[in-house]
Amino acid sequence: MKILIYDTTLRDGAQTEGVSFSIEDKLRIVQELDQMGIHYIEGGYAGSNPKDEEFFDRARELKLNQAKLTAFGSTRRANRKAVEDSNMHHLLEAGTEVVTVVGKSWDLHVKDVLRVPLGENLAMIEDSVKFLKRNEKEVIFDSEHFFDGYKENPEYALKTLEAAANGGADCIVLCDTCGGAMPIEIKEIVEATKARINAPLGIHAHNDSGVAVANSIIAVQAGAVHVQGTFNGYGERCGNANLCTIVPNLKIKIGFDCISDENMKRLTNLSRLVSELANLPHDEQKPFVGKSAFAHKGGLHIDAVQKNPRTYEHIEPELVGNERRILVSDQSGKSTVLTKLMRDYPHLEKDSPEVKEIFDLLKEGERDGYQYEGAEASFELMMQRVMGNLESFFELKGFTVLVERSENHEMRSQATIKLVDVNEKIEYEASEGHGPVDALSKALKKALLNFFPELESVRLTDFKVRVLDAKTGTAAKVRVLIESSDGEEVWGTVGVSEDIIEASWEALVDSIQYKLFMNKNGD
Q1: Are residue 54 and residue 158 in the same domain, yes or no?
Q2: Rounded CA gap, 323 and 376, in Å?
Q3: Is pTM beyond 0.85 here?
Q4: How far apart are alpha carbons 85 and 80 in whole angstroms?
Q5: To the nearest whole number, what is the mean pLDDT of the chain?
Q6: Partners of 72 in the beta sheet?
């Protein structure tokens, strides 16, 4: 059975607290969703604000291969004809082939929010859908608060769907707008609705009870053929149903036809792109698309998954564009170290002296406060150093960091570094930054760019500080984890010291060394 996927990241997802997509962001997301094979992409609320108006104007120039762009709006206002309603005309002016119109299905909302007679709400729904169909639009009707309405007044809730069907709606979407329904309720209500309504049904679930994905999947199993959601589960309050979880479950686990196998491999990268454009950290523990989704840390788990991945992986990570990761920590065994080394040194065995040395360094480092599971680049450098395959690209002679507060209360940081370059020449560089670590990072890059122009693209993307022993107060050791990126790859490094600047410097140097090492070795 074919299941149509409807993405509302650009409208419902944009209602996430702290998220504001630019027009350029929205246009790029549309193109990426189209390439992935999403069937419908809701672009925004037609006529609600100048940004969405400009988006729909510019979106006309997009050449979409698979997706249908959709404008969203409400039914007509009470006590007037649809042809006289400005909201209806905004939907037409958006210029999309498909229009989604939302109407009330809960009598509580009709009485207390719209404050119109129940019969007038039915007329608003049917008249609005008929008007849009007369203007040759594919019409999707979102029945807002349908499940709450059905539980309190099932007959009226169903009448609102019949009004949409009488108007000619191409699909009627049952919305759990408050996110309070349970999966067993969803199943029973969808089945009862399917027996009454002669139109394709869809599901639109919110995650306020933490079961939006489950509700969406069980609705499909009960007969829905259209699923709405957002990438990464973005949305108001607790978010919407997460398409990054729904789609692979429908496709891989249950076998529904929704997205091609090849397009499914785009899922992880697209999830990360949407996080980046939303300016939110990517949730690395999300199913299927998180960095930790196929990460293994415990020694027994690692040993088993190396022998047969099915022992601890429910699917092959490559199916969704992800990858298996073997984490290095104090819970790891020698087999973990050996696995990391086998890529470059296949001749090594578990009892090789190099493996033992690296394993001992790992244990010693973690006792001192280092954490390599979030700093795999630092661990890679450690391994290559033991194997004699890591050259020093520069030598630090010293650095100075100044932090100054001006009379107008502005904080300024300046770093000066002294190092020996690849030509054994002493280099001095200084730079200002937003804080001492940023200033150090900029000064280091400036000193090295003449020899290593590839460092121009490297930027610090995350910075975490952890106090390791709070009992010792300001003399406690701190662990600094730095995440860096060159726009294509992301890597983590670690530093530990009683001095936060020294720990930060150690992690910064590892970050630069790792980039240079990987470039030289063709990775």
Answers
A1: yes
A2: 15
A3: no
A4: 7
A5: 90
A6: 45, 100
